Amino acid sequence: MKASKMFMLALIALCCMMGESYAQKEKKPKKGVTPRRVTVPAIYKVDTDNDGVPDVRDQCPNTPKSQKVNDYGCPTDTDNDGVYDYEDKCPGTPGDGEANLQSMGSKENGGCPWGDKDGDGFLDNSDKCPDVPGVSRFFGCPAPDLDGDGVPDDEDDCKDKKGPKHNRGCPENKDSDGDGLLDQDDACPDKPGPKDMKGCPKVTSDTEEALLRQASKVQFESGKATIAAANQKKWYPILDKVADLMKNKPETFMLIEGHTDNVKPKVSPFADNKALSEARAKFVMDYLVNKGVNANRLKSVGYGDLRPFGEEEANYKAGDQGIVEANKTAAQKEQNRRVKMTIAGTKLW
Hints:
- The protein is built from 7 helices and 3 strands, in the order ααααβαβααβ.
- It has helices at residues 2-27, 97-103, 206-215, 229-247, 273-290, 321-325, 330-336, and strands at residues 253-259, 298-302, 338-344.
- The chain has a 3-stranded mixed beta sheet.
- α5 (273-290) links the parallel β1 (253-259) and β2.
- The N and C termini lie far apart (128 Å).
């Protein structure tokens, strides 16, 4: 056993000696071969900004000496907007992703988001007039306004004369079509028409006007918004003709006005004359709709006794002496009990 141990130790020592001899032999250069020496080029030693990262590997070779850099020689950019913190006026907040999204900006704006100094909805970098509120069609600049009336030239019908916006920049006293209605009150400022048509031309003939006057006298039951059975054979055919007239003029509109005399309803489901007049005007409108006239072309209103016959333009108050004077006789009262129908080329409401 002792001899065996001695043998193993001797064998190990021999192997070590041979390995060392081999290593020494390998270190020695072969005969006739000159050892190669490696020289690091000077360029790999250049470090312009002295940040410990050679220029060949430095992605930010001009970083100020006071800045800490990463393995690639670049300083910190907290909000990742491409503007390094040392030159970023809005550098962000470490660890706060939402705040950093809000602080991101371009280098030309110092790393800050673009603002809107004039509050016109255009960011300053795309606003051609960043200090003055403007409009989109002029890239953030105010629209030209030659006469300085606050109405842009492209919306101003009177570019060299001041006027309010509701009159398209023209003076209040302008009456383009000479019909006696100022343009701001005229539904058809370029076409003369009567006042009761809002300044638009009439679209009905004398014969058609006569039919409408006849239909306006439709007889309702006293205090009600219905036509008595005994009178239906007389009035329904007349209302049918009015419906046909409207269907033959599809581009027109009708205003249906209910009026009454000044006698207060006594036994009636309606509280006063205004409610009664509204119901009667609505009856006529519903009748025409049932006959095929589009409801969008019709409007019903009720004025009670406030607009006596011939005085539609006067807004009397209940109990006013004018109303009393217009209801003195039975004939006057009969005239005032009417449902006036006006056909126009524009909505009168």
